[in-house]
Write a structure and sequence with these properties.
Elements (H helix, E strand, L loop, with lengths): L1 H24 L4 E2 L29 E7 L7 E7 L7 E6 L6 E4 L1 E3 L2 E2 L2 E2 L2 E7 L7 E6 L6 E6 L10 E6 L6 H12 L6 E4 L15 H14 L4 E2 L20 H6 L15 E5 L2 E5 L11 H9 L10 E5 L16 H13 L4 E4 L5 E4 L2 E2 L13 E2 L5 E5 L20 E5 L3 E7 L4 E8 L9 E6 L5 H9 L1
Parallel strand pairs: 1-23, 12-13, 13-14, 16-17, 17-18, 18-22
Antiparallel strand pairs: 2-3, 3-9, 4-5, 4-10, 6-9, 7-8, 10-11, 12-24, 15-16, 19-22, 19-23, 20-21, 24-25, 25-26
Bound molecules: fe (ii) ion.
Amino acid sequence: MGVLARDLSCLVLVVVCLILSVSELCNCGITSSYLRNDDLSLDMPLDSDVFRVPPGYNAPQQVHITQGDHVGKGVIVSWVTPDEPGSSTVLYWAENSQLKGRADGFVLTYKYFNYTSGYIHHCTINNLEFDTKYYYEVGIGNSARQFWFRTPPKVGPDVPYTFGLIGDLGQTHDSNRTLTHYELNPTKGQTVLFVGDLSYADDYPFHDNNRWDTWGRFTERNAAYQPWIWTAGNHEIDFAPNLGEPIPFKPYTNRYHVPYKASDSTSPFWYSIKRASTYIIVMSSYSAYGKYTPQYKWLENELPKVNRTETPWLIVLMHSPLYNSYVHHYMEGETMRVIYEEWFVEYKVDVVFAGHVHAYERSERVSNIAYNIVNGLCTPISDQSAPVYITIGDGGNLEGLVTEMTEPQPSYSAYREASFGHGILDIKNRTHAYFGWNRNQDGYAVEADSIWLLNRYWSPSERSSVAAQ
Ligand SMILES: [Fe+2]
């Protein structure tokens, strides 16, 4: 018996060693077994109910809001009146209050090739109370329309807050599914972090800007009630010198205003806001970002300003991902990674969200900053000071999914799946946040991928002492 037991234990030891050695060698990232076809989904037809024009002469349409200052006490309200300028005034009042405030905005129009826009209004409301529900009204007479929003709680380290993550949305039936699933998610998002590529109007002949209008009407049902934080993508560039349109970002900058001056930025394409316990930095993949450029200088000054004891969560939004193992757009973010990854690690950015690739991917915490061209250290390594990189360009636009992946799955890639969907970033306190990715095909209640994010600013012992409280 003694000999048999010894043989058995030897066998167990050999098997364990084999398993360990295989797991050392194997790549542990997950490529989802979900298989999609890459059929293109058409945009919803112009007479779809989601594009319905509100009734009434010159009724405001395409209503959307975004944060209007640096800390969340301001809101920019934007809308379009189709027939005449009308009023650029917003009336607003706190819930349970009869006292109406009034903010005066301004109106603009723009032309793009053979298209002339409606009257686009932008109005900033300032000095709101934190954590308060406000009603607001735009338009005049019988055509006036009412909406509401809730301001975020006062900025502070342990303020829970929930963000939705949407990218590359477009206006197909899949786009509508993504937005509906976001709205129906039992974890209610309070603000959308949008990682670029809005309407895809530029995929139409002459960049048909009517598709910017339909997109504005489609998203109003959510964007009029909660702020969408905008990032510019390549489909916002609309650079078409052959059409006599050589100025980049013309439709986007006329339609979507952001509070860039509040963070001392000189451009709407890069800026920052604080919201609850987060510090959000928006970057532009399609503006100059090399050393000495305005964007570079701004970020160089910006990162040291972030007070992690006030806003422990440091989040970066950009359009083109720095880590991407799909074939499509492979390495497009590489030049930006070479310049900025070192700062992201130094300043312990918690998570970098990007879009562009029409699929989902989450990275391990890795960095690739040791490489200097001649030393051969070109493989990303595990780095606990590095952010998690999440690609969420899977909103569902007319260009369809990308399904082709680089093989084998690189070690930096933790999970990848070519499905449409949306994300929820649910911040619990200064140390813990939960990120879930919901694929459309499962219905709203199923998360296909999730991760607990442990805040990078605090040491492991500080994190566990907060968790124990
Ligand atoms: Fe893109």
